[in-house]
Amino acid sequence: MDSSENSDTSEKVIAGGIGPERPSADTDPGRGRRIGIDVGSVRIGVAASDPDGVLATPVETVARAKRSGAEPVDLIRIAEIVREYEAVEVIVGLPRTLRGENGSSAKIAASFAKRLRRMIPGVPIRLSDERLTTVSAARALRDSGVRARGQRQVIDQAAAVAILQGWLDERSAVLKSAGDAGGTVVG
């Protein structure tokens, strides 16, 4: 088995049937808010879009549950946010390595997405490649004068915004392209 076959197989196993995705006119749920999630080992950054899916803004930072249980507090809170915002889609960042492989952080994010899917059936959960969003968010905040010390929650939210905004921008381009090709585009 060559390395590309192994990568594809491990990606499917890691994601539990949810692989890294890209926006598609065929699977787009249409107009509505989207939630972006940056899953970390200590905190989860959350962002939301406007109803038109144009702009991502920070929502909150949720502490990770320290113990696994039937319904971890972090998952419960994220599901509440999805319901509060009446989200039509949830985008979970998949932190792949620079080589495009799934490491331990990707496994954690995929597992989180899978468990969240069970809590909010009917709302599509997408995994989106988010290499270096936390690093980029920290750098952007530092460059704007925000000190990283004590600002981890802000960094996590900024990373969630970056994940979601990347998805929204690509979604807009995909839908515009589908519309230009004569397809029916909603949202």
TrEMBL record:
InterPro entries membership: RNaseH-like_sf (IPR012337), YqgF (IPR005227), YqgF/RNaseH-like_dom (IPR006641), YqgF/RNaseH-like_dom_sf (IPR037027)
Secretion signal, residue range per the UniProt entry: none
EC number annotated for this UniProt entry: 3.1.-.-
Annotated stretches, region: Disordered: 1-33
SMART domains: YqgFc
Gene Ontology molecular function: hydrolase activity, acting on ester bonds; nuclease activity
Record's keyword annotation contains Nuclease: yes
Protein name, as recorded: Putative pre-16S rRNA nuclease
Organism: Nocardia pulmonis
Gene: ruvX
